[in-house]
Amino acid sequence: MTASIPVLHLSGLSRRFGGITVLSDLDFEIRKGEILGILGPNGAGKSTLFNLISGVLPPSAGAIIYKGTDITRMKPWDRCQAGIGRTYQIPKPFSHMTVFENTLLAAVHGARLSSAQARTRSMDVLHRTGLAPLAAQTAGTLRLLDLKRLELARALAGDPEVLLLDEIAGGLTEAECHSLVDMVMAIRDEGRTIVWVEHVMTALRRACSRLAVIYGGGILTSGTPAEVLADPQLKAVYLGADDAE
Amino acid sequence: MTDLPLPPTSRHAPVVFGRTIVIALVALAVSAPWLTDANALQLGTQFLCLLTVALMWNLLAGYADILSLGQHMFIGVGAYAFYGLAANLSVMPHIAIPLAGIIALLAALPVVFVVFRLRAAYLAVGTWVVAEVFMLVAGRIPGFGLGTGTSLPLSTAKAMGATALDRAVSIYLLALAVALVAWLGTWMLLRSRHGIALMAIRDNEEAASSLGVNLIRTRLGVFLWTAPFLGMVGAITALQKMRISPTASFGFLDWTVFVIFIVVIGGIGSLEGPLIGTIVYFALRYALSDYGTWYLIVLGGVSVAVMLVEPRGLWALLRRWIGEDVIPVSHRAPKQ
Hints:
Chain A has 245 residues and is of the alpha/beta class. Chain A has helices spanning 46-54, 76-82, 99-110, 115-128, 144-157, 174-189, 201-207, 225-229, 232-239, 241-244, and strands at residues 6-17, 20-31, 35-39, 61-66, 69-70, 84-86, 162-166, 193-197, 210-215, 218-223.
């Protein structure tokens, strides 16, 4: 039942960079408790969408409604504390801090926990994401896959209601990808809503209750994974119109 | 075999050695009044004042990413406030110094509304311009010597002690107290929840804001944190020199250029860096005191050389060998 309640509503959302319009008049709802997969070719505006929702970028027009409140002008840190967490496609670790301190920061400032609670939460998410053995290691020395896990761990440490995942499955082996999907589904089962930008179709097909394809600045198509992946429009935007026919 | 991490005992010894040196330096600083003469104490006072200023600039530029070129404005404000309190209102110097710090903090409040509208290089230039405005205004205040400045009354000097040595000891101890409070306060700040936010801003501002760090409040807080310490340094310097003037009290070269040198050489973004940098600066100043302008040329050359070898300064080189901070600000993970 909770999956039908909109937790995030994007209304007429647009973003222009000079003369280039990346997102145009986007109208979309994200429902509570769902895992929504976002697809689209490179440059379609998927990461821009995350930057708009998380407050890193202001929209050129439109509004973002979160749990009935207009958060369009809210600062990124206020959105995080309100329950919107995110990862970055290109990891942005706090390189001179330890892995533990990276998650501690999110627990202290994002989830606004006391020092003792934040330490416990940090270790919990590090265990969950398999980073606990690296807790004392400086984040700048991690390999790429561990940096991606750290992105997820930090976002979780902030205790988000809506979690924006930006291409966290890239470069994983099949077994690792399978474990990651299990973890994402377990995170959803805790009552969180997940929006997942990804190119790894097998991960999205298994995890998502709904898929949406961004193309040309708007939503090209959306529906269940089976519906969207069978849609000829998806093949057209990825492979070109001739190949899709 | 060289790729293997060093066993804990191998790294432990340099850390203990480093901490022993820090403790020894503090002990030496505390016992200096009983060990040295008035001239050495005056030099010690200058050292402690510059160390405090370097610590504050390091906090701004090294942690909060605020590249201020105008911190000398608060030093000047502190000096002029001290003169106003001690000379014009006959307030005891020991009370006038903390009051000068508070006045510097009050002066910082309107400044933040101006300079925090700017970022990066624009903020750097903005702080410099505001500092120049402060200097020009200071040179036009009646009763403060206008453009040429003025000397403090003899009664202020006598309040610090009957003899030159007594006065040097009193002023040195005030500088030591300010430096120790600044150091301990900054260490506690960095160990707090605000400190971890500062370190995150230092490493990646965008990620920090997305993880709940209020960039505006954190930056404003740090800027205001530094102002009273800078103001007290200005007051102590005015007391030591027994004189204020717009060009000396708001000295860009003395209080900003040399301080940037100290922090860059010593190690930006660390607590050890400003201490190392101040020692190196005073050693070079002493060694090159007879060589005129060559002194500045060598300072510039040393800066460039250190930045080419290790952009994060001498402390970063040492830390690579030691393996951890001598003055720890990190948060350790609970034991598994």
